[in-house]
Amino acid sequence: MAAQVTVLAAVRGTAETEVVLALGVPGSGTTVTRRCGDVVELLAAAAAGAGAVAVVSGDLPGLDRETVARLHGSGVRVVALADGHGAERLRALGVDTVLDGAVAAAVGDGLLDAIRDAADGPGLPAVPAEGGAPSPLPDGAPTTPGRVVAVWGPVGAPGRTTVALELAAALAGLGPAAGRRGRGGRHTHRTERTDPRDVLLVDADTYGSSLAMRLGLLDDAPGLAAACRAAGQGALDVASLARQSPVVAPGLRVLTGLTRAARWPEVPASSLEVVLERARELAAFTVVDTAAPVEADEVLMYDTHAPQRNAATLTALAEADDVVVVGAADPVGIQRLVRALEELREAPVVVPAPTAVVVNRTRASAVGPGPEAAVREAMARYAGLDDVVVVPDDAAGLDGALLAGRSLAEHAPGSPVRTAIAELAARLHAGAAAVATPAT
Ligand SMILES: Nc1ncnc2c1ncn2[C@@H]1O[C@H](COP(=O)(O)OP(=O)(O)O)[C@@H](O)[C@H]1O
Ligand SMILES: [Mg+2]
Where is this region: Disordered (predicted)? Predict the structure, then answer.
C-alpha cells in the first residue's frame, strides 16, 4: 500500500473540522500532520518538513504569491479551497490545485483526489506555477512576448542608470529627426517602429533608485513596489501594470523605484518575476536598471526562504533576454568592469552572456590620448573582449538633461552619448528581429 500523504491543514472556521475528519478516515491515504492557525504556522511546518501537501482556505489571511512560492520552496504542494473566494486569484497566486465551490462539496468530491494528485505530481522545487487567465492585450498588439533587457554594472556609478534611460529612449524611437531640434517645451520625435507597443523602463535598483528624479517625477509613489504588491496578491495584469507605469515621453513608460533602500523587501523575486512577465505583454522592450551587488546572502543560505537583499538584481539578470554590462572608462572603472564580468559568470543565478559591454565616459583625461582605442585595447587585453560599445563623456549634455528632468534623446539629441547608445539600441532591435523571424 502506498505511503500516507502527509497534509498540513490551514483551514479557517468550521470547515477545518470537516476537512480534518475527511482526511483522517482510514483508507483515505492521507494523514493530517499539522493543523495550522495561520500562514506563519503553516510556513514553519512546511519548512520543518512536516507535510507534503498544504490544504488552505482561499481566504486565509496572508496567503499570497510569496507564501505559495515559499511553500513550494519547502517542497510542499498547495491545494486551496476557494469556497467563493476567487478561484482565479488563487490560481494566479501559483496554487497547484484550486477546488471551486463550497467546502462541503469539495470534501465530498475532489479533495482526496486533489491531494493525492498533488503529492504524485512532478517534484518540487519547480518554478511556481504561473497561473491565472491570460491578460488581455491592447488591441492589435503583437502576441510575441517583449524582450527584457537588464542593465547592470559594478559599483562606482559607472552609468548604469544613464545607459538604461538612454537605451530605453532609443528603443522607443525617441530622438532627433533630421533637421529638427527641440527648443523649449517637450519636443520629441518618434521614429517608425515595427512593434507598436511601448518601451517600459523599470527602476529595480533597490540600493539607490534614481529614475523618478531623473525624469522629473518628483513626488511619485514607487510604481515598482505597487506592481510587486499586486503581483504578490495575484492581482497584476497588463492593465494594472500600465496604470503603475506613467508615460513620460511618447512610447516610453516608467515604473519608478523604491524611495528608500530600506524598503527592498517589497521587491521579492517571486513578485518581480511576475512583473517582468506582464511587462513582456505590455512592452516590446522592458529595460531594467539594476543595482551592482549580485552576491547571495551567505548568512541566509541555510534558510532558502529568507528574502535576499539582492533578489531584484538577480531576478532581472536571470529573466533577461539581453544583459548590458556598463563600466566606467578610467583605470579603476575598467578593473572593476573586468572583475564584474567574472562575477556575472559566477552569479548565484544563471545569467545570459552579455549582449553588449559598454565602457562609459570614455575621455582622454582618464585614459590618455586616443581614448577609444585605449579602452578597446584594455578590454581586449584584460577581458578578452574585442567587441565593446564605447560611449564618450559628455558631462555638459548629461548634467543639462538631469537638470531638465529628461532623457538626452529629448534634451540634447546631438550628444555623442545618445548617438553611441542609439547604436546599441539598433543592435538590440536586430537581435529581437532575428528571434521574431527565424531563418526560413
Ligand atoms: N557618458 C557620460 N558622460 C558624462 N557623464 C555621465 C555619463 N554617463 C553618466 N554620467 C554621469 O555620471 C553620474 C552617474 O551616472 P549614473 O547613470 O547615475 O550611474 P549608476 O546608475 O551606475 O550609479 C551621473 O551624474 C551621470 O549624469
Ligand atoms: Mg543608478
Answer: 123-144
- Provide the grid cell at 23: 482526511
Ligand nearest to the CA of 365: 1
Nearest C-alpha neighbor of 86 from the set 239, 273, 238, 234: 234
Residue nearest to ligand 1 atom 7, measured at CA: 361
Of the candidates 94, 132, 437, the one whose C-alpha atom is nearest the C-alpha of residue 281 is 132
Ligand 1 nearest atom to the CA of residue 399, by list position? 27
Q: What is the pLDDT of residues 407-427, one digit of tens each?
A: 999 999 999 999 999 999 999
Ramachandran region, residue 184 (left: φ > 0; alpha: ψ -120 to 50; beta: rest): left
Q: Are residues 283 and 209 in the same domain?
A: yes
Q: What is the CATH number of the domain that holds 238?
A: 3.40.50.300
CA distance 222 to 81: 34
Instruction: Give the pLDDT confidence score for residue 27 in this predicted structure.
Output: 86
Q: Residue 91's domain spans which residues?
A: 5-120
Kindly give the number of the ligand 1 atom that is closest to the alpha carbon of 401.
27
First and final CA of the chain: distance in angstroms? 55
CA of 154 to the centre of ligand 1 (A): 13
Bridge-based pairing state of the strands 189-190 and 174-175: antiparallel
| Rounded distance from Cα 2 to ligand 2 centre (Å) | 56
Question: Which residues touch 94 (CB under 8 Å, ≥6 apart)?
Answer: 65, 68, 69, 72, 78, 128, 129, 130, 131, 234, 270
Total structural domains within the chain: 2
Contact 66, 104 (CB under 8 A): no
> Within 10 A of 370 (CB to CB), how many other CB atoms are there?
11
Angle at 428 between CA 425 and CA 430, to 5 degrees: 110
Closest-lying ligand 1 atom to the alpha carbon of residue 360: 1
* Cβ(48)–Cβ(94) below 8 Å: no
Ligand that lies nearest to the alpha carbon of residue 257, given by its number in the listed order: 2
Q: What CATH number corresponds to the domain at position 99?
A: 3.40.50.2300
Residue 350 domain flag = yes
pLDDT digits 0-9 by tens, 242-280 = 989 988 888 999 999 999 999 999 999 999 999 999 999
Q: Is residue 162 part of a domain?
A: yes
